[in-house]
Amino acid sequence: MKFAISNIVRIFANDIRDMEKKKDYTVTQEQLARFAKALGHPARIAIMHFLAKQKTCYFGDIHEELPIAKATVSQHLKELKDAGLIQGEVETPKVKYCINRENWQLARELFKEFFGQCICKSGECC
């Protein structure tokens, strides 16, 4: 039993050392992943598409524009807001939503840079 415990402690210590050796992600990588996660559901894409077509902030009920339940829309709006892609403000009895133009531009630049980094543009890649 004592041998098994010492082996577990040794393995655990090695795992911790390995984790310490790993590099952290860059701020850019973390931000790009956050935007990608927020856009990783078709309902959120539909919400962003809808809001992008609005000339001003939207004061209506977004759930009326989409084929999903009101509670589901709320969850998706929260995810988009947490990622910084939209802004929401309560103006009783409704909430107004807008695309966060600054973060929208940042997302556009990060995705453009990310997708443009492939060095094999001539079709010679695997």
DSSP strand content: 5-15%
Question: Outline, from the CA principal axes?
Answer: elongated
Largest sheet, spatial ordering of strands:
1-2
Number of strands: 2
- Summarize the amount of helix as a percent range: 55-70%
Q: Which structural category fits the helices and strands?
A: mainly alpha
Protein name: DNA-binding transcriptional regulator, ArsR family
Pfam family, one: HTH_5
GO molecular function: DNA binding; DNA-binding transcription factor activity
Keywords: DNA-binding, Transcription, Transcription regulation
Write the layout of secondary structure elements.
Elements: H1 2-21, H2 27-38, H3 42-52, H4 70-82, E1 86-91, E2 94-99, H5 101-115
Antiparallel strand pairs: 1-2
Descriptive overview:
With 126 residues, the chain is mostly helical. The chain has one domain: Winged helix-like DNA-binding domain superfamily/Winged helix DNA-binding domain (Arc Repressor Mutant, subunit A, Orthogonal Bundle), CATH 1.10.10.10. It is 56% helix and 10% strand. The protein contains five helices and two strands. The protein has helices at residues 2-21, 27-38, 42-52, 70-82, 101-115, and strands spanning 86-91, 94-99. It has a two-stranded antiparallel ribbon with strand order 1-2. The longest helix has 20 residues, at 2-21. The protein is elongated, with a radius of gyration of 22 Å. The model has no long low-confidence stretch (mean pLDDT 83).
